[in-house]
From TrEMBL:
This is Metaxin-2. The keyword Membrane applies. Belongs to the metaxin family. PANTHER family: METAXIN RELATED, METAXIN-2. Transmembrane segments: none annotated. InterPro entries: Glutathione-S-Trfase_C_sf, Glutathione_S-Trfase, Metaxin_GST, Mito_Protein_Transport_Metaxin, Sam37/metaxin_N. Involved in transport of proteins into the mitochondrion. It comes from the Eukaryota. One of its GO terms (biological process) is protein transport. Residues 28-148 form the Mitochondrial outer membrane transport complex Sam37/metaxin N-terminal domain. Interacts with MTX1/metaxin-1. Associates with the mitochondrial contact site and cristae organizing system (MICOS) complex, composed of at least MICOS10/MIC10, CHCHD3/MIC19, CHCHD6/MIC25, APOOL/MIC27, IMMT/MIC60, APOO/MIC23/MIC26 and QIL1/MIC13. This complex was also known under the names MINOS or MitOS complex. The MICOS complex associates with mitochondrial outer membrane proteins SAMM50, MTX1 and MTX2 (together described as components of the mitochondrial outer membrane sorting assembly machinery (SAM) complex) and DNAJC11, mitochondrial inner membrane protein TMEM11 and with HSPA9. One of its GO terms (cellular component) is SAM complex. Its main location: mitochondrion.
Length: 262
């Protein structure tokens, strides 16, 4: 039997308007979508130091009862242990396929977002450094930004992305979207009629890419080329985020960005 979900469950992320970056916003929205799909209410709390509060150093993280869990994968497992699951109806082959597509999204879309934020020089100077360091006074704002940049660039080097051009990264995004578009087809969700954690993850990233103002529209244009993916984002936004209580997490889909429906 499912355990009762506490009313005061909270999700922590960075400040919406002035601080949070594309990749963290996407990850946070994916978790919010997952919890909405499970019908588990959560209050979004924005803190300038959310990244440093997180047990893994990554956002978002949820505080439920006396437990703190960060990132979508561990949160899905935590929620499942409490008796709530979106993928119980899948067979073993489908579960393996779902995991493979989630890996694809994390390896391609999330990595591309991080590359754009921290390796594209124009984006770094005009968007990333000002936003990332915004809650802190000078020179701490620059020091923290450069530390993070060094950390991400070291990761990019380790996975072989450091030498890529922006065009190559955008091509990777296009290939990922093409694979997702083919898997989705004309279905409402990736595994037909019911959403799974894959739907929450894909929505978090694609919706955020579609609605975040960057230096150019090149990234969002890659997603817009696939009409079934944009329709998928609109459908989830309408079903799980539109017209809900304004004080709850459900306004997250509009967090500092325009809705797809406007």
């Amino acid at each position: 039997a499912a355990e009762p979900w506490p009313e005061n469950a909270a999700l922590y992320q960075q400040l919406k308007e002035e601080q949070i970056l594309l990749s963290d916003n996407a990850s946070s929205l994916a978790v919010q979508a997952f919890l909405q799909m499970c019908n588990l209410p959560v209050r979004v709390i924005c803190r300038a130091n959310a990244e440093y509060m997180s047990p893994s150093g990554k956002v978002p993280f949820i505080h439920v009862g006396n437990q703190v869990v960060s990132e979508l994968g561990p949160i899905v497992q935590f929620v499942k242990a409490k008796g709530h699951s979106l993928s119980d109806g899948l067979d073993e082959v489908q579960k393996a396929e779902m995991k493979a597509y989630m890996e694809l999204v994390n390896n391609m879309l999330l990595t591309a977002e991080l590359y754009l934020q921290w390796c594209d020089d124009v984006t770094v100077e005009e968007i990333t450094h000002p936003r990332y360091g915004s809650p802190y006074p000078w020179p701490l704002n620059r020091i923290l930004s450069y530390q993070k940049q060094w950390e991400v660039r070291r990761k990019m080097k380790a996975i072989g992305w450091a030498g890529k051009t922006l065009e190559q990264v955008l091509e990777d995004v296009d290939q990922c979207c093409h694979a997702l578009s083919q898997r989705l087809g004309t279905q409402p969700y990736f595994f037909n009629k019911q959403p799974t954690e894959l739907d929450a993850l894909v929505f978090g990233h694609l919706f955020t890419i579609l609605t975040t103002q960057l230096i150019t529209d090149e990234l969002s244009e890659k997603v817009k080329n696939y009409s079934n993916l944009t329709a998928f984002c609109r459908r989830i936004e309408q079903q799980y985020f539109e017209g809900h209580d304004k004080d709850s997490s459900t306004t997250a889909a509009q967090s500092s960005k325009r809705s797809l429906l406007r």
